[in-house]
Each structure stands twice: as C-alpha cells, then as structure tokens.
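User: Just a sanity check before I run the rest of the batch. Below are the structure tokens for the first item. I only need the designed sequence back.
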C-alpha cells in the first residue's frame, strides 16, 4: 500500500486498526524521512512508493482484506507502485512475491531474494519496474477486471 506524506499517519492508523485485531501481519516504514525517500523520484523502482506491506495467509484472506480495507481507504491518494497491481481507486496494491527472507543464486551469479516456483525450487523474486506474474502463478479467481484499473498491464486476462 502507498501513502503520501500528508495522509500516511491516517492510513497507518486505519491499517493498524484493521490488521491488529485480525492478527494479519504487516510492516511499515518507520518515519516521514523513510517515506519521503521511498516516494522520491530516484527511489529503487522495485520498492518505490511502498509504505505498508500486508501479508495475507491465503487468497481468501487477500480478497477479504482488499474488499474491506479497500472500502476504508477508497479514493485516498498515494504514489503508484510500479512493481504491483493496483486494486480499486485507493492506495492498495498487490503482487506475488516473497515475504520470508530466502535467497538463491540468479542465472547471472548474483545472490537474490527468492520465491519458490511451481516445482519447489528457489528462483529470484523479480522486483522490477513493472507488474509481472510468475509463469507458474494463476491470479486469484476473484479478480473480475472492475477493481483492477491497470488490467491492461497484466500478462493474464482480468477475469478469473
């Protein structure tokens, strides 16, 4: 999820009040300076704009979070997160990627954050300047195209 300097405190309060009672894990940038750097023109494109990542347990919880928290945060401004897919008109975004620190060696010989592919192998968790879905992942069935303003940027159709 993204936020601007002037609405970050309220967005964080709303996320806290939603996630803590439901025991949904999340993290957040700890201060204005970190948010300013994350939103800066020259921020790393794989992390640019990110303020509060939320970690749902499964697709069912993801849908519930997007629907319920999306209603709370609807129409709040925030920078576009290039690596993620925007949900609705608010600052919520999704991406398929790692949230546990695991590493692998990339084809170029670099040590990189990793995710497990469809065969159980660790592969690089690509965090580039565009939204990408790994080849072995199907987007959740609840995606219907009406809540995904940037469906044209996806590799798969918007309908489940």
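Assistant: Here's the designed sequence for the first item:
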């Amino acid at each position: 999820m993204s936020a601007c300097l002037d609405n970050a405190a309220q967005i964080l309060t709303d996320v806290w009040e939603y996630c803590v009672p439901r025991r949904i894990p999340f993290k957040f940038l700890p201060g204005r300076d970190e948010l300013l750097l994350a939103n800066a023109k020259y921020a790393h494109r794989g992390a640019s704009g990110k303020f509060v990542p939320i970690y749902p347990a499964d697709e069912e919880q993801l849908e519930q979070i997007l629907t319920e928290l999306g209603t709370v945060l609807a129409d709040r401004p925030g920078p576009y997160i290039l690596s993620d897919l925007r949900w609705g008109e608010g600052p919520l975004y999704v991406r398929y990627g790692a949230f546990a620190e695991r590493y692998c060696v990339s084809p170029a010989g670099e040590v990189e954050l990793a995710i497990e592919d469809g065969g159980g192998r660790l592969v690089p968790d690509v965090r580039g300047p565009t939204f990408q879905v790994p080849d072995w992942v199907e987007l959740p069935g609840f995606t219907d195209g009406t809540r995904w303003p940037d469906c044209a940027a996806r590799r798969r159709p918007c309908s489940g």
